[in-house]
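Re: weekly structure request thread

Next one in the queue (575 aa):
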Amino acid sequence: MNSFWQIKIYRGKFIAYTVFVVSIGLTLGALTCAVLLYQWIENARSEAVSAFARIEGELQSDNDRIEAYMQRIYSNNRLMTDVRYFLGNSAEGYLTGRLQNSQSSEPLISFPEDMKAFLYSSAQGDITQISLHTELQGNVVRFDGNGNGSFQFRLPNTDDAFRESIQKGFVYRKKLSDPNQISRQIGEFRFLVSSDQLFKKVSGYKLDIAAAVSDSGEVYMVSGKDQRKQELVLKAAAEQRNSGYLSVRGVKRVFYTTFSSTKFNYKFVVLVDLLLLMRQNAGMLVAVFLIVLMAMISVLLLIVYNLRDDARFLKRIIHSIKRVKTADFTSSSPARYRRNEYGMIARELDDMVLQLDKHIRTEYLLKLKQQETEMKALQHQINPHFLYNTLEAIRSTALVNRDVDTADAIATLGTLYRDVVKKENIISIGSELELLQQYLKIMELKYPGRFYYQIHVDEALMSLSTVKFWMQPLAENFFVHGFNPGHEFNLLVVNGRETEDSFVLEFVDNGQWISEVRLDEVRSNLSSRDDAPVQSIGLHNVYTRLSFFYREGFSMAIDNNEEAGVKITVMIVKE
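Done, posted below.
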């Protein structure tokens, strides 16, 4: 990974790809888990639908049996008679009445026994209590788990045995009419279907939390019996929608679905704890996570492979560029070029290196030798010319003054000439200004009280590299062409400043103007490349040397000032 991690663009790409792949992977994983969770919830809902349908079917079956039994009573006079005995008597009265009215030629009919055989046994024990009521009291027959009956007679209708509660079960009420006068009601049957017996039949269904809730708010927990779960059941039953999600501690983590009974006033409520559901299916969730993780890792490895391959070619391209910059055109080992943009660039760049090598060997080296020869010739032209003029100035001063100034001038000249000879050809602007000041001090000795100079150059220019001894010819031009010996105030000002995109040096004097015709000639001669002699050899040599050194980043302008004198502007473009 180090092959591309050190390159900023590929490091940024890898981070972006990683964020994208992880985001997509997490999104797909979350969607897959959400789909699985939805499917599991739907499965639980289907189980709830089946369980509720089973309960409703059992209640309907019990209702059908009860209706059939009522028809059996009305169609059997002896059974009806026994029912009447049971309704209006105590235990002793019921037994006595049965015996007194029995006939030896007919078998004895027992309403409780007949009811047990027809209802309790065939209903598989759902109906555990049958009571027969008048307006004030009722007689009760109960069956235990083994089908054994027990009786209670003349219990008030307000007795707790007749209190209807979902904890006990569901009550079917059937009127008992006089068979001779149907409009006359003689009593009422109440058949109790046990909740324990009824809901036991759905114990095989996958219901984590299931309950029946009556209209009065009573709860019968079919499964998941817990006080906290009862509170959730009541909360779900109170919801307006038949299904949805409940919040637990501020998080929606329980799914509920409710079913309203068409037989009785109750709701069948099923809850699904999502956390429990996920724990139950943790294996599948882990498998999904591992699949998504492996997919993300595979994609990232593929990305890393491509980025490393691209980075390898980019490094090859950069290496080729560095070879060009250092003029190393030796042939490199052959490369397998990729069939993409990087391969095209690498192939073209290697071909360019070969072409440059041929071009440099045939033309560029020859031109460098030629330029070096020209530079040396120009330097040799300037130095004797400067030395002759300086010695003439010192000689004139010595003849006129015959004083100590001559010794100072000679000492300054010696220092200047020594610096010119010893300094390298490439020096700083600050060093070049020192050479210029030494020359100007000599000129002050030559023209005492009539020549002054000022130098104001920004510090930013002082360390800028330049060629040696090009400012002196510009200053010398002032003394040769623009200086007025009879004038009391001859001034030369050197200004240097930094702009946004260049460095500017200005040489300004207050001497004589240059005529427009002559100014045009000087300007045209500056950039002349032929070997023909030019009149402004000093300016021409300076321009040529600076052009060789700065190339296209150099320009020189010569203009007349508005009041007097000439301004020479040298502009060096920033790299």
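The chain is about 55% helix and 20% strand. The mean pLDDT is 81.
Next request, please.
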